[in-house]
Design brief:
The structure is a single chain. Strands 3-4-1-2-6-5-7-8-9-10 form a ten-stranded mixed beta sheet, sandwiched between helices. It has helices spanning 2-15, 91-99, 122-142, 161-169, 188-194, 224-227, 248-257, 280-285, 287-290, 298-317, and strands at residues 22-30, 33-40, 46-49, 60-65, 74-80, 103-107, 149-159, 208-214, 234-239, 263-267. Helix 2 crosses helix 10. The protein is globular and about 60 Å long. It is an alpha/beta fold and 320 residues long.
Length: 320
């Protein structure tokens, strides 16, 4: 999975839409807040060098570095990537939101990102919500342009393990003891479970008022009972085929078990369809990530996907 997402950085470099109104501020002084902030800006975009934030094949993004924020009382969306991903993995969504008047902040999850996979097992799952709480604390209380944010309009976007992260943040209480560990399963998570090393319950964050959850991983940990405390509007996307460590049947069960009336979308493709379209070079290098069912147009889907996410968050939080 790690090398897969490294390769996917090629796609982001080449196919990310031009940020017609996106300013960028890089976050690279604190390992716990390593990533970037995108926001509406009137300046023309240029190449922004990533420096220490570079990943293999991606050392720059398009945007207006450190330009003044345009607007006031803007909605904020925080983004959580999947296992072994990185802060700009969902650049198409991020730029679409920034161009629509949102401030967007995304970080590398410490110990579980393209450049650092040192964390193992259940602590990876349990620590991720705390990373996003720290990011929200920073954005609302420490960021130099925090006055441009409306703290009553905070949203979330998360894919795969980021989708799990979002469900926890908005009220779910995962039960890691539900992990099915067969005797010959020597994974770090199963070894931790056998040793009774169950992480404490991850934190929730009531500041999040709406969330987009995409093909959430670790679906085994959720039941209708431990999802019942979710009380905010959700847009949920799931793939019919799953893959990439995500169980399609488990995600379908979680989706059916959500309280309220979430905005549910079922995509007739696999888990990786939610990542940006592949270049021909990447398709040859990683066919398992780039191959979609016959008749599925990933580029066309992403135009619809991006627009639907922006529309949902606009309806719930505002923005242009």
């Amino acid at each position: 999975m790690r090398s897969t997402l490294w390769a996917f950085a090629i796609t982001l470099c080449c196919l990310g839409s031009p940020a017609e109104a996106a300013g960028i501020q890089l976050l690279d002084a604190d390992p716990s807040l390593s990533g970037a902030i995108w926001y509406p800006c009137a300046a023309e975009p240029t190449h922004v060098a990533l420096g220490r934030l570079s990943v293999p094949t991606v050392d720059r993004l398009e945007g207006a570095k450190d330009c003044p924020v345009s607007g006031a009382k803007l909605p904020l969306v925080v983004v959580s990537h999947g296992n072994s991903g990185y802060f700009a993995l969902h650049l198409d969504i991020i730029e679409a939101l920034a161009n629509a008047g949102f401030i967007v902040a995304a970080i590398n999850h410490p110990g579980n990102n393209t450049n650092d996979m040192s964390a193992r097992g259940m602590p990876v799952w349990a620590s991720r919500p705390a990373h996003m709480v720290r990011l929200l604390d920073f954005m609302l209380h420490e960021w130099k342009d925090r006055d441009a944010i409306d703290p009553a309009k905070v949203g979330f976007f998360g894919f795969s393990l980021g989708g799990f992260t979002g469900l926890v943040l908005v009220g779910a209480q995962p039960d890691f003891r539900r992990l099915d560990c067969k005797q010959d399963n020597k994974s770090a998570a199963c070894e931790q479970l056998r040793a009774g090393e169950i992480p404490p319950e991850p934190p929730h964050d009531a500041r999040i008022k709406a969330a987009v959850i995409v093909d959430p991983a670790v679906s085994f940990s959720f039941t209708p009972e431990n999802l019942a405390n979710i009380g905010i509007p959700l847009q949920v996307w799931r793939s019919e085929l799953g893959g990439g460590g995500v169980n399609a049947a488990g995600v379908a069960y979680v989706t059916r078990s959500l309280p309220g009336k979430p905005d549910i979308h079922v995509v007739r493709a696999g888990h990786y369809a939610f990542l940006p379209p592949c270049t021909p070079e990447l398709a040859a290098l990683r066919p398992q990530v780039c191959t979609d069912p016959e008749g599925f147009d990933r580029a066309a889907f992403h135009r619809e996907f991006d627009a639907a996410v922006v529309r949902f968050l606009h309806e719930q939080l505002g923005g242009r």
